[in-house]
Amino acid sequence: MIKNKDTMTQLKAERGDATREKLLATAIDIFGRYGFDGATTRKLADAAGVNLQAIPYYFGGKEGLYIAAAEHLAALIGNHVSDLRAIIHGRLAELEEQGQPMTAAEARGFLTQMVQRMIVLFVSKQSESWARFIIREQMEPTEAFTRLYGNIMRPMIEMARRLIGAILEDDPASEHIRLRTLSFVGSVLVFRMAHAAVYAQLEWETAGPKEIETLHRHAAELVAILGAEKDRQP
Questions:
Q1: How far is the C-alpha of 78 from the C-alpha of 105, rounded, in Å?
Q2: Measuring CA to CA, which residue among 20, 16, 134 is closest to residue 73?
Q3: Is the pLDDT of residue 96 over 60?
Q4: Residues near 49 by Cβ (< 8 Å), separated by ≥ 6?
């Protein structure tokens, strides 16, 4: 009897986790399409295929679901680069302990890997709903933007700043490097934020292996030209 009770408890917990995951995945899409005000709890529950009461039960209400969706989105994006981020952080920490700067060549290698992953993610079907959610928060920031920025945007931008600072041999905290980093990030974000224009200009219908290889080469080129103006100076 006790064993059966434990099994039932486990099954109930698993169903609860599945319901929560459905709501989070659906919320990113529905909030991105209709905004916070336009995404009614009925619309959210119906799209997720769950009971209406699941929203207050798991998230305390629509606002709680909205914030949780932003945190879930940050985690999804972070998972694509978490292993590489850990490697770069570890290397930077090792160099700091030794009192040594990262070489431009090593920084270019890390930055190239990071950009290649992000560009491929940005042209994927998976990231369409993510972009809609993020664009809304960029236009009219709420507490959800604070979560997105703090959990994924700021760490990624700051890591890029450190790598670009090493490449350009300048202070990562300087205004110059901050601006260069933002411009660089923008050249990568265009593949998601202007997705339709990118596909139209490149005359692509999909991003298969050939297209991905092209994007990998382009990412390497974006990194390679960083600091090229210094090399051309007499």
A1: 25
A2: 134
A3: yes
A4: 22
Residue 100 placed within a domain: yes
What six digits make up the tokens of 22?
């459905």
Structural domain including 119 reads 68-225
Mean per-residue pLDDT, 62-85: 94
Q: What is the CA radius of gyration of the chain?
A: 21
Q: What is the CATH number for 154?
A: 1.10.357.10
Asked, for residue 32, whether it belongs to a domain, the answer is no
| C-beta atoms surrounding 107 within 10 Å | 24
- Alpha helices (runs of H) in the chain, residue ranges in sequence order: 2-38, 41-48, 54-59, 62-98, 104-122, 128-139, 143-148, 154-168, 175-193, 195-202, 209-224, 228-232
Q: Binning pLDDT at 50, 70 and 90, where does residue 49 land?
A: very high
14-23, 64-73, 124-133, 208-217 — which is least confidently predicted? Answer: 14-23
Answer whether residue 14 shows pLDDT above 80. no
Measure the CA–CA gap between 165 and 51, rounded to whole angstroms. Answer: 51
Distance CA 17, CA 39 (A): 22
| Phi-psi map region of 208: left, alpha, beta (phi>0 left; psi -120 to 50 alpha) | beta
Number of domains in the chain: 1
109 by Cβ neighbours in 10 Å (0-12 / 13-18 / 19+) ranks as middle
Instruction: Tell me the C-alpha distance between 155 and 36, whole Å.
Output: 26
Q: Does residue 15 sit within a domain?
A: no
**1 or 195, greater pLDDT:** 195
Phi, psi of 161 (to 5 degrees): -60, -45
- Helix/strand/coil for 36: helix
